[in-house]
Amino acid sequence: MRFGRQDDIRAETHRVWQVVSVNGVDTTITKRFTKLLIAPESAALESEGPGPEEEPPPERARRSDTHTFNRLFGRDEEGQRPLTVVLQGPAGIGKTMAAKKILYDWAAGKLYHGQVDFAFFLPCRELLERPGACSLADLILDQCPDRGAPVRQMLAQSERLLFILDGVDDLPAPEAAPCTDPFEATAGARVLGGLLSKVLLPGARLLVTTRTAAPGRLQDRLCSPQCAEVRGFSDKDKKKYFFKFFQDEWQAERAYRFVKENETLFALCFVPFVCWIVCTVLRQQLELGQDLSRTSKTTTSVYLLFIASVLSSAPAADGPRLRGELRKLCRLAREGVLRRRAQFAEADLEQLELRGSKVQMLFLSKKELAGVLETEVTYQFIDQSFQEFFAALSYMLEGEGPPGAPAGGVGELLRGDAELRCHLALTTRFLFGLLSAERMRDIERHFGCVVSEHVKQDVLRWVQDQGWGRARAEPEGMQEAEALEGAEEPEDEESEFNSPLELLYCLYETQDDAFVRQALRGLPELALQRVRFSRMDLTVLSYCVRCCPAGQALRLDSCRLTPVQDKKKKSSLMKRLQSSLGSSSLSHCKLLDAACGDLSEALRVAPALTELSLLHSGLSDSGLRVLCAGLAWPRCRVQTLRVQQPGLQEALQYLVSTLRRGPALSTLDLSGCQLSGPTVTSLCAVLQHPGCRLQTLRWVRARDGAGNTASQARARVGTWALHLAQEMSPPGPP
């Protein structure tokens, strides 16, 4: 039995409005939906991150078509079928639309045929904001055309049910035990908690969407989830989208060529919603004959340019009224973001005099729900990222802060622990993007107001008070112990919410070199842990390093440094990160040979890099040999080199020979390497060479024979090169 459920879904979702369509054109979901890349968790770990340049191999990221959707709940190698699938990705990537397409395809009989009898779409924000108590049975009846539907019979076969939970990153930390009874009227958070933890309908299938920063926080609440990453558009997809968006082929070619030549802007277009905004702005500029170079290269600048295009397209007489409405819309967005509200009643709009306004029609979508006595009408922003952008913009507008608060009221946004502020991450990033001198001038010009510099100073002080990236001293002898006893590889999993990396994203969004340099001044080091660098991550990190004060230290611990090659510039992380650094430490970072080659080239030109530490980073003999070429380069400034990597033999002898030519190397720490007898002999010979500038050597000598154990090896530790040379020098001249 279907109780008409599939027919109702097809009728309800067959026609959806194009977001902020300038011409008010509506289209079917099948036409609006653009196929994205979806990668299983294992492929996501091995990949470079969002927006791959080439088409993915079939066993990795796949097109979000019906076949891929069917595979989400497919059996694994052990024959087990997951009951919870997590679709994760950044804001605007298309998670909600993909989830709705899955619902539509199921209703059309294309998905989970013979496996799922009923499917329900539950927007988490709406459920959390729903007044009063409700049961899961109530939520099911709300989506059934007949309030007399046999819910008990449906729930009795929970294995035939599919629940799509959209936006679970909005779910707050649990304050009460999850709901276990589908007929218990309770808070929406408890119902969601029961479904996620599988104490409520344990046999039902769950499809969960969440932003990328949130999965770590949800792990304790999910039962054996299968994770997949929504990766947006590939480069070929971007081109297809441009030519689909622009009906005029000449406009499509010109717009696409312009964006393709703007490397950063082109990278941002892997997010479908950002790609749509870029296309919308470019189309207006082309139609008005404007200079396309006005389109900038950060998400914030793209959103602001879109708002500017809305203002400029209005008749001059309507300008003041429209600016006033946008100010009120910013206030509405801000209140919603801070209080985690996505839905607004008609009374909320009437209070701000926004009901029926131009901005309501442009930026808010209307939803009508049949009530017992009358139809309930609610409004929400056309995309959550728009709400977060307008919330950030509110802090820049004069007089928007509450009485007695710092200028702009940014304290309310920034205060608190980073983990608790996770839902404010995108709003904070937008705020930083609006702080650049150029963006502030744009705001003043378009909104006719004066932006207070106090906002920028408040944010700057907040950055400097974060205290992240502080150096952590290791106990004396720990390095030797780890090296000889075999340091355990840390589990290769990313931290729940990487606040240091998020802060770097915020600084990058400003594109204000002076501000970033001032913000980073006083921090002893930039420290990142457990980051799987995507291409955008590398772009952000390299920009911040370029803006660092001279002599800044960088420490990467347990990070995945997948080489990222640019077809034209042939540049990678290692090449770009050494510009102004004084010290660089890579620990457990799996340094591949290709990255060693890039680092070797960087050592030849890095003007300030005097310390380099490579600690248990998977160095191979060939990789170390390549590095030695850079260390021996006449312009290399490295004075201190630390290498901890058991198993190196041939390359260590090559490194020893480099000491004769190293122009600046004065301290060598090999305490994490087991030196063989021939290597020690070569080392002692080189120490007596007149070209060797080494003053300090730290090493652990491994004894020969059967007694060569880790505990015995620790017995010989030398610290002064001259002393070691005299003790270990072979007979006769070198």
Automatic annotation (TrEMBL):
Keyword Repeat in annotation: yes
Any Pfam family hit: WHD_NOD2
Leader sequence residues: none
Highest taxon above the source species: Eukaryota
Gene Ontology annotations of biological process type: acute inflammatory response; regulation of inflammatory response; response to bacterium
Keyword Metal-binding among record annotations: no
Ranges of compositional bias, category Acidic residues: 477-494
GO cellular component, one term: canonical inflammasome complex
PROSITE patterns in the cross-refs: NACHT
Keywords: ATP-binding, Leucine-rich repeat, Nucleotide-binding, Repeat
Disordered: annotated segments: 43-65, 474-494
Molecular function via GO: ATP binding; peptide binding; vasopressin receptor activity
Segments forming domain NACHT: 83-397
Protein name: NACHT, LRR and PYD domains-containing protein 6
